[in-house]
Amino acid sequence: MLALSRKKNEALIINNNVEITILEIKGDQVKIGITAPKEVPVYRKEVYLQIQNANKEAVADTEGLAALKDLFG
């Protein structure tokens, strides 16, 4: 992990096309802005993990797969 110090209105560039800017600092909260191409998905980590878990559950749902096979069988 790379740890950097940034002040308000300072930014980071990732992979030449993603910019992360520090917008505001209030106490222990930091507001950031992210500029990225539309094809680059940006999620809060907890949302990303929920999406991953839902995808795993959908793949593991053999009952649903059997129902689809019966429907199109």
Quick structural overview:
Helix content is 37%, strand content 27%. The chain has helices at residues 45-60, 62-72; strands at residues 11-14, 18-26, 29-35. It is elongated and about 60 Å long.
- Morphology call: elongated
Query: What would you report as the Rg, rounded to the nearest angstrom?
Result: 20 Å
Helical amount: 25-40%
Oligomer: single chain
Our count of helices gives 2
**Structural class of the secondary elements?**
alpha+beta
Largest sheet: 3 strands, antiparallel
Q: Averaging pLDDT over every residue, what do you get? A: 91
| Secondary-structure element pattern, one letter each | EEEHH
Strand order of the largest sheet: 1-2-3
Strand tally is 3
| End-to-end Cα distance | 49 Å
Characterization of the model:
This protein has two helices and three strands, in the order βββαα. The chain has 73 residues and is an alpha+beta fold. It has a three-stranded antiparallel sheet with strand order 1-2-3, with no helix packed on it. Strand 2 (18-26) and strand 3 (29-35) form a beta hairpin. It is elongated.
Search tags:
73 residues; 2 helices
Helix/strand layout:
Blueprint: E1 11-14, E2 18-26, E3 29-35, H1 45-60, H2 62-72
Antiparallel strand pairs: 1-2, 2-3
